[in-house]
Input
Amino acid sequence: MLIAMFPGQGSQSPGFLTPWLDLDGAADRLAAYSEWAGVDLVAAGTEWDADRIRDTAVAQPLIVAASLLSWNALPGRVDGVAGHSVGEFAAAAAAGVISEEDALRLVGLRGRAMADAAAASPTGMSAVLGGDTETILNRLDELGLTAANHNGGGQLVAAGPLPALEALGADPVRGTRVVTLQVAGAFHTDAMAPAVAELRVAAEAVETEDPRLRLWTNHDGSQVAEGRRYVDLLVTQVASPVRWDLCMASFADAGVTGLVELAPAGTLTGLAKRGLRGTPAVAVKTPGDLASAHDLLTTPTR
Output
């Protein structure tokens, strides 16, 4: 069971898209992605600085575009796909549930709607690494914060007002380390409700197909066999916690033998090292990593 993973927001970095432009057809594909998303993705991925690509309206289509660009260059086949947060849009296109055009149009709208929702109040997200989960959840509740991402591998992500996040960082739960994430709002919380309403209208007009590959949802880690249901979950997931821990548990139950994370890669393979110990994984950060992905995807399972 070989699974491709698509990363979420915060995985971008300045200039990360530059080496991908050397691939045949990449410039034309990115030009189309840019038109559909309403963002100059070439400039964003090669020239813009960290603050500019941190903007939710830029980061989300940029990450999905990079993931699909690397997916189309992937040598070898996988059995299933899953995305983390906004990466679910790339997974939907990879599985054939929606077209790449619809994925970029929807994610462009999602990014703008979530940016507008985030602008209503100063909020953010912080990763909480290590520690006892129950103790962490109790502390978040005391501070009025939400566990927005259950990432597994000893990582929770807290979301909410910036003063509360600062308090969490200043006095962390024993045995934990708190890392501020490069995102501009409390995603996957009730603060994103206005974005859900806006995205739902656009998503209802999109044509869907049932997935051609196994496809897992962040909602509860289950496999989804109906394309329309998956798109509906994409909408509600904007304001609901990401259960990547349950996705990894489902990968294990399915007998995963290898993982490939598409660009901008690194975060999900890092989680897999702790949550799926011993499972071979390749992070496709640049085209130079495609050879390693090929080796993993074409080596017979022992």
About this structure: The chain has two domains: 2-119+189-298, 123-180. The first helix runs from residue 26 to 37. DSSP finds 13 helices and nine strands in the chain.
